[in-house]
Amino acid sequence: MAEQDQSGLEWRAGDLPVSTRFGDPYFSLDNGLAEARHVFLAGNDLPARLCPGFAVAELGFGTGLNMLALALEADRHAGPIRFTSFEAYPMSAPEIARALAAFPEANAIAQPFLAAWTKGIRKFSLGALTVEVVIGDARETLPQWQGMADAWFLDGFSPARNPELWSPELMAEVARHTAPQGSFATYTAAGHVRRGLNAAGFTVTRLPGHGHKRHMTAGRLEPPA
């Protein structure tokens, strides 16, 4: 039984948020925190690569679950680590809190984030992370960003439902804002996404996915020949 609210969300199975705008859940039915660790942390080889000054960027902030998974890992390393996420349709703090309640490990460190979010603060610290969430259409905000990322979490809604966030033009912007030998990881293995990332300069590898998903995609930015 699904429960709808007025903010573009539908709640399924109690606390699984689904975007009614895109008809897609915010995280995996097969444990969203485990998915974040498998796809984004392991996919970018972050347990081995994190170090002071490392920069991670993300398309699709959602509930902040990927950020919290990164924070849990980053706290095992010397900080600070920068995290920048781009989000067009931010959830409210109560909505995020409801979703995160399903993940006690992540929820245990979420209070500074939720306190900042409640106040409308989009730059804050979370353990070893210094966080900025950029609100707006990434097709407009990413080209204006002055930063560079060592690793990208590409976590927009399904390419079939939200094609704008997976266009070749936006993948080229991702590459333009990636440090040499920087990486990306994403849950999707859609062919047009892989081709767009490859055309942007990434080597692209299809890997085993999380849970019921057979495949995911990861890659590194190769220097020009």
As a whole number of angstroms, the C-alpha radius of gyration is 16 Å
Could you give the order of the helices and strands? EEEEHHEHEHHHEEHEHEHEE
**Fraction of helical residues:** 25-40%
Largest sheet composition:
8 strands, mixed
Beta percentage is 25-35%
The count of DSSP E runs of length 2 or more, i.e. the number of strands, is 12
Please tell me about this protein's structure.
The protein has helices spanning 32-42, 46-49, 65-74, 93-100, 104-107, 111-118, 138-144, 168-176, 191-199; strands at residues 3-4, 9-12, 16-19, 24-25, 55-59, 81-87, 123-126, 129-135, 149-154, 178-186, 202-208, 215-221. The protein is of the alpha/beta class and 225 residues long. The protein has a single domain (30-221), classed as Rossmann fold (3-Layer(aba) Sandwich), CATH 3.40.50. The strands form 2 sheets. The chain has an 8-stranded mixed β-sheet, with helices on both faces. Strands 1-2-3-4 form a 4-stranded antiparallel β-sheet, with no helix packed on it. Helix 1 (32-42) crosses helix 3 (65-74) and helix 4 (93-100) packs antiparallel against helix 6 (111-118). It starts with a strand and ends with a strand.
